[in-house]
Amino acid sequence: MTDGAFVGNFAQIELFFKGLDGYIGLPNHQVFQQMEVEHCASLDSLDTFVTTNYGGTQTNPRMEWEFVVCPVKGKKYPGIIRQADPLGRFLKDPTAVSAGLTREEVIAIRLFTGPMFMKYNARLRQFPAALVAALKGNGFVTTIHAVVSAIIKLSRTWKIPYDRKVYRGLGGMLLPQKFWDEDAFGCRGGVELGIMSTTTTRDIAIMYGGTEKGRPTILKSKSGRSTVAHLCGGSVNIRVRTRLSCPPSRI
Fold first, then answer.
1. What pLDDT score was predicted for residue 230?
2. Which pairs with CB-CB distance under 8 Å and at least 24 residues apart come from 128-137?
3. Tens digit of each residue's pLDDT (9 = 90 or more) over 133-184
4. Secondary structure class of 249 (helix, strand, coil)
5. Where are the chain's structural domains?
6. DSSP 29-73
7. Under DSSP, is residue 16 helix (H, G, I), strand (E, B) or coil?
8. Can the peptide bond before residue 128 be classed as cis, meaning omega within 30 degrees of 0?
9. pLDDT score recorded for residue 215
């Protein structure tokens, strides 16, 4: 194996059919209160973690909750291209209104498009081991449900061209054998357990493809309304180039 490369962990189709409820459990019916507990009153709430992108932002869940829900005017928050705007601005955003997003879903999608994506995807993918251990048992179950709900709602409001293709850089990841060997039904591939971000710009995917690890790989896929949400403009935490996300799905 090439130095720095690793074999990706993809689930079997049976887990896909269990759905999110079957995989991580049901959300708490007091959504806002539970999301706040997950970010501000859990064992990892004050533990610093470092993002793998955006210059290596150092932050913690409680700081991210404050940034999104109740930012302090004039306070400098972690990150190099972030602006702390009042939550009300995003609740009134035309895209959020058109999609019928709840307050909790707006909060969740903004948290996801910031550093917290690392925590949520570590829970979903159960990888990398160090980040999973750093969760200290905090599953962010209710927040993840809100993120996925928001993505599904947003996917209904955006017109996607018929031939729209999106790309994903694998960062040195090697595809497991199931991507090459057919199963009993003649299918190859696996279930991506995380909330996968993609881009419409191939060069950006190549940048994240793992060239420095000697194993550059990117995925190219055709997107559809049922699997993709547009996370650009007013409803994002960090302003980035065109970015698309889909909930846990089959590849």
1. 43
2. 131/49, 134/44, 134/47, 134/49, 135/44, 136/42, 136/43, 136/44, 136/47, 137/43
3. 999 999 999 999 999 999 989 888 877 777 788 888 877 788 888 888 888 8
4. strand
5. 6-250
6. SSHHHHHHHHHHSSTTTT--EE-SSTTT-EE-HHHHHHHHHSPPT
7. helix
8. yes
9. 66
In the structure, what pLDDT confidence band is assigned to residue 14 with cuts at 50, 70 and 90?
confident
| Ramachandran class of 32: left when φ > 0, alpha when ψ lies in -120 to 50, beta otherwise | alpha
Strands (E), the chain: 6-7, 49-50, 58-59, 165-169, 173-174, 191-192, 196-199, 218-222, 229-230, 243-246, 249-250
Q: How many whole angstroms separate alpha carbon 194 and alpha carbon 139?
A: 13
| End-to-end Cα separation, the chain, in angstroms | 23
Q: How far apart are CA 113 and CA 107, in angstroms?
A: 10
User: Position 158: which residue type?
Assistant: W
DSSP 11: B
How far apart, in whole angstroms, are the C-alpha atoms of residue 240 and residue 196? 15
What residues contact residue 9 under an 8 Å CB cut-off, 6+ apart?
125, 126, 127, 176, 193
pLDDT tens sequence across 46-56: 999 999 877 78
Q: Is the pLDDT of residue 228 over 60?
A: no
Average pLDDT over the chain, rounded to an integer: 83
Q: Which CATH architecture has domain 6-250?
A: Alpha-Beta Complex (3.90)
pLDDT score of 187: 84
Q: What is the pLDDT of residue 66?
A: 98
Q: Which residue type is seen at 29?
A: H
